[in-house]
Specification:
Elements: H1 2-12, E1 17-21, H2 24-31, H3 39-50, E2 56-60, H4 67-74, E3 78-81, H5 89-95, E4 100-103, H6 109-112
Parallel strand pairs: 1-2, 3-4
């Protein structure tokens, strides 16, 4: 539910968007454990849930995990992060000074935080 909320919230703020699905090794690095769902399962789920929206692109992150290169490839004007994503906005702005960064609000994090499942 939390990820669905993030996608819906982001889409309300944009005419089009690109959703980057994290690679398995990125999830393991961030969470310190493997994901319960494979990257291909997560990708398929997001594609299925957004397929009626022609202005939403869904893709896997880069195999090399290069976040900055992913941003260069997509060249967004706005980056919407999850409320609990551990990115320092100053680091992002150092690479992309004109990028507008927003944080999405949490959707019942006491219930739907993925680490609680």
């Amino acid at each position: 539910m939390g990820h669905q909320w993030l996608i819906w919230s982001a889409f309300q703020k944009s005419e089009s968007m690109c959703i980057i699905v994290a690679r398995d090794k990125t999830v393991a690095k961030i969470k310190g454990r493997p994901s319960k769902n494979s990257e291909l399962d997560r990708l398929e789920r997001v594609q299925t849930e957004t397929n009626s929206e022609p202005n939403i692109k869904v893709r896997l992150g880069r195999a090399d995990g290069a976040f900055w290169e992913t941003l260069k490839e997509e060249a967004p004007d706005k980056l919407i992060l999850g409320y609990d994503q551990h990115f320092k906005e100053a680091d992002i702005l150092a690479h992309f000074p004109n990028l507008k960064i927003e944080r999405a609000t949490a959707y019942a994090p006491e219930i739907f935080k993925s680490s609680k499942f």
